[in-house]
Design goal:
5 helices; 41% helix; globular; 138 residues; 5-stranded antiparallel beta sheet
């Protein structure tokens, strides 16, 4: 098990150079589920764990309720063809810090078309990951 102080400290160290500050967090409860949200003047980053699966999401400060999986953002920016790839939290952390300026640009409030592309990519990823399990409705 981990302590929230350690998790928060880890992400403070990772995100502070990009202007992020801790906004809020939850203490682990069932299945060690938790979330930590950091905010900068442009973006929000949410690190969360649900039933042992740890991942990251990003939202614009202009639409903080609209979160995007950083794995989808990585697929979009790298033009990856293998959509069913599941990234480790370490992969996502590395991607975030090495591509921060590109990610920030994607979430400029004038970039709604990019958000639509990422949403569509999420649908395609779901269909690829679960092909054969659901009827394809487009």
């Amino acid at each position: 098990m981990f302590s929230m102080a350690e998790k928060i400290g880890k992400y403070k160290k990772l995100l502070a150079p990009y202007g992020f500050k801790l906004k809020k967090y939850s203490e682990p409860k069932s299945f060690d589920n938790y979330y930590i949200i950091f905010s900068s003047k442009d973006l929000n980053v949410r690190v969360w764990q649900d039933r042992g699966f740890e991942t990251m999401s990003i939202s614009s400060v202009h639409k903080p309720e609209e979160w995007f999986d950083i794995g989808l953002i990585k697929l979009h920016l790298t033009k990856a063809r293998k959509l069913d790839k599941v990234y480790s939290i370490e992969d996502l952390e590395k991607f975030l810090v090495t591509n921060f300026s590109n990610i920030k640009e994607l979430f400029d409030k004038k970039r709604s078309e990019t958000k639509d592309v990422i949403k569509e990519l999420g649908k395609k990823r779901f269909r690829e990951m679960f092909k054969g399990h659901f009827a394809d409705k487009g």
